[in-house]
Every structure is written in C-alpha cells, then in structure tokens.
Amino acid sequence: xxxxxxxxxxxxxxxxxxxxxxxxxxxxxxxxxxxxxxxxxxxxxxxxxxxxxxxxxxxxxxxxxxxxxxxxxxxxxxxxxxxxxxxxxxxxxxxxxxxxxxxxxxxxxxxxxxxxxxxxxxxxxxxxxxxxxxxxxxxxxxxxxxxxxxxxxxxxxxxxxxxxxxxxxxxxxxxxxxxxxxxxxxxxxxxxxxxxxxxxxxxxxxxxxxxxxxxxxxxxxxxxxxxxxxxxxxxxxxxxxxxxxxxxxxxxxxx
Length: 255
Prior knowledge:
There is one protein chain. This protein is an alpha/beta fold. The protein has helices at 24-37, 60-63, 68-85, 101-108, 118-121, 124-127, 134-137, 158-166; strands spanning 9-14, 41-44, 90-94, 129-132, 141-143, 146-148, 170-172, 178-184, 191-197, 218-224, 230-236, 241-243, 249-251. The two termini are 26 Å apart.
C-alpha cells in the first residue's frame, strides 16, 4: 500500500454526490473502500450538495419541508465520515452547478453573505479541505498530468467536447453517466483522455419524472508517479456493491 513517502501516490475520486439525496449504499461502499485503500488523495468532482431548496427551478410544493440547515447538517455528517475513513488523505472538493445555487441565492439575499456559502457551511477551511471554485471562476484541480473539473458540456459527445476544449487529460462528473474519449495529437507520443466518472447520487431524482437515463454509480482510483504520469481505474457500482481494482468486494447494503 502506498504511503506519503512512497510511489505511486494513490487517489480516490468521487463524482456527484448531491447530499442529501446521495445513494446511501453506494456512498457507504465507497467509504469502506476508502478506509481500506488509505489513499494519499481524496477528491470530489462537484455537486457535493444538491441544494434543491434554493433552486429557482422547483415549485413551492416540491421544496416544502426542505431546509438549508438540514441539508448542510447532512453534508457535514458525510464529511465527518469521510475524514474518519481517510484521515491521512489530502482532500479537495470542486464547486459544481448545484453547489453554485447558493451563490445565486446569496445574490438575492446579500445579508446572509459569509454564512451560507458551501465552503463556509461545510467548514472546509477548518477541515483542511481545498475548495476549488470551478463553476464560478473556472478553476481546475491539477494533480500531475490529470486535471479535474465538475464538467461543462452535456451533449451526446461530451467526453470528446471536454478533451478537445481543454486539450489536456480531463476528468469530470456533471452528466452522471460514463463516457470516455481519447485524442492523439500530431507530433505527440501519448494520448490525452476526457472521461466522465458517473455519480453517487440517487438514480430516481424527482426532476427526472421517471424518464430513462444513462446515469451510473461509479468511483475512480488513480495512481501517480513523480513525473506526473498516472494510471486509473473506474469502478462501476451496481445496487450498492462493487469489486475493487484490488479484487475485494464492497457492499454498502450490509451494516
């Protein structure tokens, strides 16, 4: 197992969680894997929070009974569990479009500025978790030759769009499904990849209205060398269960 002083460095990357509507079994299985993996890096690709209660696209009936404080309480409980499972890992969370709902809400309620921003309400600075404000500033998290964002494009060929737009290895969430596209540029001796890494949220989100989707629960394990080169494995999660790259079974349905 890699440690802080050895190579390769190990990373565990989670896509969209959407607290408080995360898939409990998938998240628990991912937590247990992280506890065993003991990664050097844990990262989350945005939409850690769902923040449906401040969405301007929901009716009053849909948001009845939902409270900002309850949502952030759930988010803080999950972060407590993540810190307990992976205490030694460097951690980062990327800002997604759902997280940015709070910024739009604060634009309309500036008297609450400083208290309800996602990074403040989740106490990220106190926790030592890096906040990457991708959605509002375009900031990218770069580790070696891998780059992480929340995601921008949702068209049919979003992986191709992301890798050709950014021109680097780019990994993202946002679309909740799995897709990969590789580009080899003239004169280069290596390929660059754009890949969406799925989600960890419930697949029966109300706004889907029962429509079929290609959403897929998944997590990704990365390994980095000192020169920035990396390898990775994306692991699909079905029914809250998966087999890790190390061949171990993780089942979030079992207590």
